Amino acid sequence: MTNVLLTFPIKERFRNALKDQFPKVNFDFSDTIEGADEKEVEILVTYGSDLTEKVLDGLTELKWVMVASAGVDQMPLAGLGERGILVTNVSGIHKTPMAESILAHILSLNRALPIIQEQQKQKIWEKMKSNELKGSTALILGPGSIGGEVGRLLQAFGVNTIGCSRSGNRHDGMHEDILFNEIENTLPRADYVISVLPSTSETRWLLDESHFEKMKKTAVFMNFGRGDLVRERVVVHALQNEQIAHAVLDVFEQEPLPSDSPLWELSNCTVSPHVSALSAKYVERALEIFKENLEMWLSGDEGYKNVIETDRGY
Amino acid sequence: MTNVLLTFPIKERFRNALKDQFPKVNFDFSDTIEGADEKEVEILVTYGSDLTEKVLDGLTELKWVMVASAGVDQMPLAGLGERGILVTNVSGIHKTPMAESILAHILSLNRALPIIQEQQKQKIWEKMKSNELKGSTALILGPGSIGGEVGRLLQAFGVNTIGCSRSGNRHDGMHEDILFNEIENTLPRADYVISVLPSTSETRWLLDESHFEKMKKTAVFMNFGRGDLVRERVVVHALQNEQIAHAVLDVFEQEPLPSDSPLWELSNCTVSPHVSALSAKYVERALEIFKENLEMWLSGDEGYKNVIETDRGY
Question: Of B47, B187, B208, B313, which is most buried, counting CB atoms within 10 Å of its CB?
Answer without folding.
Answer: B187
